[in-house]
Specification:
The structure is a single chain. By secondary structure, this protein is mainly alpha-helical. It is about 50% helix and about 5% strand. Strands 3-4-5-6 form a 4-stranded antiparallel β-sheet. The chain has a two-stranded antiparallel ribbon with strand order 1-2. It has a two-stranded antiparallel ribbon with strand order 7-8. Strand 5 and strand 6 form a beta hairpin. Helix 2 packs antiparallel against helix 3, helix 2 runs parallel beside helix 6 and helix 6 packs parallel to helix 12. The structure holds (2R)-2-(alpha-D-glucopyranosyloxy)-3-hydroxypropanoic acid.
Amino acid sequence: MVRRLSRAEVAEQAAEVLRGNDRGSLTVAAPRLYPHMWSWDAAFIAVGLARMSASRALTELETLFAAQWGNGMVPHIVFSANAPLYEPGPDRWAAQETSPYAPDHAATSGLIQPPVHALALLRILQAARGAGAAERRDVAARARALWPRLLSWHRYLAEQRDADGRGLLMIYHGWESGMDNSPRWDEPYADVVPDPGFRPFRRSDLEALGEQSQRPTDADYVKYQWLIEELRQARYDDELARKSLSFRVADVFASAIFAAANEDLARVGDELGLGAGDELLGYAARFRRGVLGTTDENGFAADVDLRSDRTLRTKTLAGFAPLLSGGLDADRRRRLVDLLHSPAWCGNPDLAYPLPPSTSPEAPEFDVARYWRGPQWPPMNLLLIWGLERSGEHDAADRLREAALYQLTDGVFAEYYQPFTAHPLGSRPQSWTAAVALDLAAG
Ligand code: 9WN
């Protein structure tokens, strides 16, 4: 029998995890498997840290954005020195040698991850309201200094990742979605054919975790590594990448996050007395339309393979994207929330907790243990909770919040969970899981 922690114990132990993974000005995503800073992890971590200290939470975003590229891109990994081996490491990316935009003071990857950062910044400012006057003033001043970097990140995404203005972000790699081996990408990956002479590198992930059945397969990994090679050959140049890469997909979930992030960044800008509100709300509207344009009769959204222009209708939790971006009419929003509660998702009778699996148990690709192909991921629960709240679906948000917190009362803070047995999987303790636990426990 697992001993269940009280809400206060969850908060206490989660804070302990974040302190243990804190390296001063950044929190590593996980001590062994991911010993560096990851972009969207950092945003979730900041949301959790804000429950302890708004000032320290802001430091997390400052560290990430200090590694921003000259063209506004925020890299998906910022490498820390003297960390255990992680492949692909800085040598593989060779960012500084390859792109004029890469910063010279930080080693980074050359990909992006979903833009959750403005959602985090808004929450940091909200947390700062409860702090003393000196911290409040300090956080506001630093947020004002950071804000132009978020604006240039959003401009990069709108201009370079949606060059034709359809309101959907183009990604160059499954890693850019943050849902690496999700069935969302099976079809586009079928067209990725590594050069026969290409030598893939070490599976540091398997060495750290020792559990092959919970990670992407070797066949997946060769493609992941090959795409980095292609991107490096394109010199991380977006114009070239848009034409040449063998993986180019419109990511509907990241696009919905981006719509929400533009609204939140506009709100932060307003609060801090900064401009660009119209521009940001314009992006929000464009991406809201883009997401809605992919939906079916239930409001369930789809990705698009931009090389073949095929719509990718897989049953993954990315389909709930419109809850985040908004704009569904009341009928379809009702149907989408009903779908979320149906046996295909949270209402599945075999689930240990009524939380959305990353892939529907009714989908042929569903796998109980393998990474993004079935397990439940705490930060995704939080995103859906936020989406339901944004959509005015407060009862549904509360139900999800309660189940999400209960799952984390096992005190393990695992990367992901087996949906039928609630068994903790992947790396542990995982920082963003602890951060989500802290946020949920704070209520
Ligand atoms: C590749 C850090 C990251 C998360 C991703 C998750 C996983 C990396 C990996 O770990 O991706 O970026 O090595 O598998 O899929 O969402 O940000 O926690």
